[in-house]
Amino acid sequence: MSLTLEEILHLPGLQAMSVRAGARNLQRRVRWPYVAENEGIAEWVMGGELVFVTGINHPRGQANLLSLIEDGEAVGIAGLVILTGGSFIQTIAPPVIARAEQLGLPLIEQPYALKMVVVTHLIGTALVQMSQLRRSRNDILGQLLSGDYPSLAIACQRARHLELMLDEPRRVVALRLVEVEQLFERHGLAEGERLWQAVRQALEDHLQTWCRARPGAVLVQMPGDLQVLLLADAGDLPSSLAALHRQLCMVAGELRLHMGLSRLAADCAGYRQALSEARQALDVAQHLHPADGFCDFSELGVLRLLQGIKDRSLIDDFVAQTLGRLINPGRKQPYVLVDTLDALLKENGNGLKAAQRLGLHRNTINQRIQRIEQLSGQSLDDPLFRMNASVAMLVWRMNGPRQGVTP
Fold this sequence. Notes:
Blueprint: E1 3-4, H1 5-9, E2 18-21, E3 29-30, E4 32-36, E5 49-53, H2 62-75, E6 79-84, H3 94-103, E7 107-111, H4 116-146, H5 152-161, E8 170-178, H6 180-213, E9 218-221, E10 226-232, H7 237-252, E11 256-261, H8 271-288, E12 294-296, H9 303-306, H10 312-323, H11 336-346, H12 351-358, H13 362-376, H14 383-398
Helix pairs in contact: 2-3, 4-5, 6-7, 10-14, 11-12, 11-14, 12-13
């Protein structure tokens, strides 16, 4: 597990280091410190480094520092630390600070009196400790999620010792990147591997940042291609996950990402069942491509059966044949009849209650019922039609409530 720049600056012994630019990006994660000895850094870093420049082995004038800032931001370093006050770099010139601020690159000033060996030792030690803590947390969380533990009581004690507060009810989210094979087919093994690892790391970084901003959220790295979130239940959870999915799709690039959400697990003894539910919901999401990017196990119902239909076109044809004739793309409100049918189904075919739900006069709802039956060739009194329409509406809403279908 990496540390953020903000966490590093708060390490005991590093209080003398000060942020000169890019403070808005102090949540960038640092994977390791790197002392730059060459004129440039572009070919010597891979991204995520906290780069230190001293001026000892190479002159660091304003032009060189500006070049380092440009290169550092281009290759994705976490931040740039400039040692000042000795006989090499006296001060950081204002244009250097201004350019770093413009790019959003965190620029940190370190007094020359603060020895480099002390700084790198403190950062390196903190990174090792964080990595060990991460492995321990992943180990115990993996045991709880898989059910592979010798004693639940001991597992819970270990979790508390590792400062994992798992007593409150949680929901499990399972995430998976797909179309990885196509990535390798398009780019070849070497470039495909590089892109794959870069996306996985970017995904992990984004999830870590998201979890830090959401109370009670925990990221678990499971073996294989599955990532898992433990989340406290909240009223904004569906909208938050939909927003998260949109963000992660941008991170995923050429790959696609799907998510599945479990029902609420009362405590960690229910994590195994919750993970199973999240994976089932994930499989449905991967098959049916919901508009908001995830499926909720508690809302799946018949969708779990539809998941068994391997040919997605059969499902699309069923929805089109059931609802397509009720959609009029040429009208200002093309979905009036579909919305009316939805209200009728929710009210078990009761026209009066459907009219109240939609705020319509009873004559208007009767006219729409006649139109629905005329276009569909079916009667709303037919329980088979209502069942088919309910399933079609469920799939249609999941794929985006205003996604058009054609008969």
